[in-house]
Structures are given as structure tokens and as C-alpha cells.
Amino acid sequence: MATDPHQLFDAWLAEARASEPNDPEAMALATVGADGRPSARMVLLKGHDPRGFVFYTNSESRKGGELAANDRAALLFHWKSLRRQVRIEGIVAPAGAAEADAYFATRSRDSRLGAWASDQSRPLESRALFEARYAALVAEYEGKDVPRPAHWRGYRLVADRIEFWTDRPHRLHERRLFTLGPDGGWTEGLLYP
Fold first, then answer.
1. Which of 77, 56, 72 is closest to 5 using CA atoms?
2. Distance of CA 86 to the CA centre of its chain
């Protein structure tokens, strides 16, 4: 058994990058609103290390509002080609502004403009309205750098539970659960499938 789930995750992600045909960094993010209603959606992992798992989004979106109301969340990676999944639970904290600026600068110009054009998760009167907002921003920023909007942020999920699941014949799957202790060390155990 391993003692560092982050090293195991690194190894599994490297295998997924080599074999998964599309978006090995795609993960389901589950949040809960102030009303107790759960919600899940796909986001992309943009960084990870022992400090946590980083993703970016509009803080004024539904998920941003839910994270503001309840900082506990869960992630799920499912790599069908490898017949594996990783479940991660923990507390979400904002990533630093400098980190968000640095990542935002790596996005395509069109994606940066899209972050300004979209009122993510809010009702949209028509697709034409959204496309017109985008076109106006293209004109406004022609020949200029596109800065990161204040509402576009990074989030880091600091894990306290990480489960590695491997498919096995006859549904006799393997489940390895790592739990973070109060001393900051990880313990590992097995779960029945």
C-alpha cells in the first residue's frame, strides 16, 4: 500500500493522459447550495500538487455561489479506458490572484474574451445576444491585452479523502481510501466494493 495519495494520483493521471482519448483532466465537481440542493458539472483540472486540485470558473456562476455558501465539495475523475476512477472530497479555498492571472494569460484570446462575455449560469434571452456581446468585446479589445475579469477565479480543493477505484472482474472491484488525519498524515484502508 502507498502512503501518499498525491503520488498515486500523479501516476494514474499520467496513465490517463497516455490512454484516455479525450480530456483526461475532465472531472465532475459536486457542490451544495445554501438550500441543500446538490449540483454536479464537468470542469477541467488545471493544476494539482499536495496543496490541492485547482480549477477555474466564474465566481458569480451557480457553482461559484454554492462554493461561497458551502466550501465543502467533491471531485470525480472517471477514466473509462483505464477502468478507473478517483473520488476526492475536501474544502475549497480561492487560489491566489497571481496564480489566476498567470493561468488566464495562457488561455486563448477567444476564451479570455468569452470569460468577459458570459454571465455564466444566468438566464440568456437569446444566443444572438450572447454572440453580440462577444463581438462587441472583440472590437473593444482589438490590439489590446485581455485582462482577467475580477469574477473569474481559481479554486483549490484541499483533499481530506481520496478514493482510488479499480474495476475488477465479476464486480469484485478494488477500492483504496486515503483519509487525512488531524496530524496532516494520510492513512490508507480498503473498502468493500
1. 77
2. 13
Active site residue 171: yes
Vertex 54, ends 75 and 62: CA angle to 5°?
65
C-alpha cell of 139?
472590437
Confidence at residue 21, expressed as pLDDT on a 0 to 100 scale: 86
Q: How far apart are CA 15 and CA 106, in angstroms?
A: 24
Q: Which of these is catalytic: 83, 122, 161, 171?
A: 171
Among candidates 14, 2, 36, which has minimal Cα distance to 178? 2
The cell for 130 is 450572447
In the beta sheet, which residues pair with residue 74? 30, 89
Decide: 90 and 157 in contact? Cβ < 8 Å.
Answer: yes
Architecture of domain 5-108+148-191: Roll (2.30)
pLDDT per 10-residue tile (average), the chain, 193 residues: 86 96 96 94 96 96 95 97 97 95 95 93 92 96 95 97 96 95 94 94
Domain boundaries, the chain: 5-108+148-191
CA angle 79, 82, 88 (to 5 degrees): 45
Report the C-alpha gap between 46 and 36 in whole angstroms: 28
Does an H or E element contain 97, and which? helix 97-106
Instruction: Give residues with Cβ within 8 angstroms of 139, minimum separation 6.
Output: none
